[in-house]
Amino acid sequence: MASPHQPPALDWRDGMIPVSRRFDDPYFSLAGGLDETRHVFLTGNGLPGRFRDGFRIAELGFGTGLNLLAVLLAHQGPGHVSYTSFEAFPMPAPDIARALAAFPEVAGVTEPFLKQWEGGQTTLHFPNLTATILLGDARATLAGWRGQADAWFLDGFSPAKNPELWSPDLMRQVARHTAPGGTFATYTAAGHVRRALSDAGFTVTRAPGFGRKRHMSTGILQPPTTASRISPG
What we know:
This protein is α/β, with parallel strands linked by helices. It has 7 helices and 11 strands. The protein has an 8-stranded mixed β-sheet, sandwiched between helices. The protein has a 3-stranded antiparallel β-sheet with strand order 1-2-3, with no helix packed on it.
């Protein structure tokens, strides 16, 4: 993909799992990336049951696009969904194709995705979904975004290795760009992340994680008049 933005430097585990050299972290679970996406981001946000015409998803960390493809597979009913993702280091199409080859189930939606991505498009069109990938540091691009989300996928690299994408300031921006009653889900249950989301206005719940991860986090945005809290889950 032709882009002025720096692509990620990658290593490949088992020849198929991309690992960021910058953050020393894999792009998806070694135990099964598609299953992880469904468990964490779809089920964690009550999807696909909440889908309706005009439903809005936003995401921190586009990566290989696997979360987007999982949504495309899950959204088989009527109505149009919008999907906005924030990505600082866009992965070139050949690397995405190599990574997604591990998931034959998404092959039917991978081809139209990659054709657009390889052509340099950052607004991607599908029959019942439009995806917009905003390139650049999310600390700047999210603050300037005028949209809101009904569901957030918080999918940056590990908070221990990529703390900038989990800062209290950025979590406040996530809350500011969440519709009333909107939700988030993330694979991490790190205490400082949960506190930042709680302080931003979400009621945060610890939930069973995927694979070897004992816990993950989900939450719902409370009205401004309701004090946020962390529930024991």
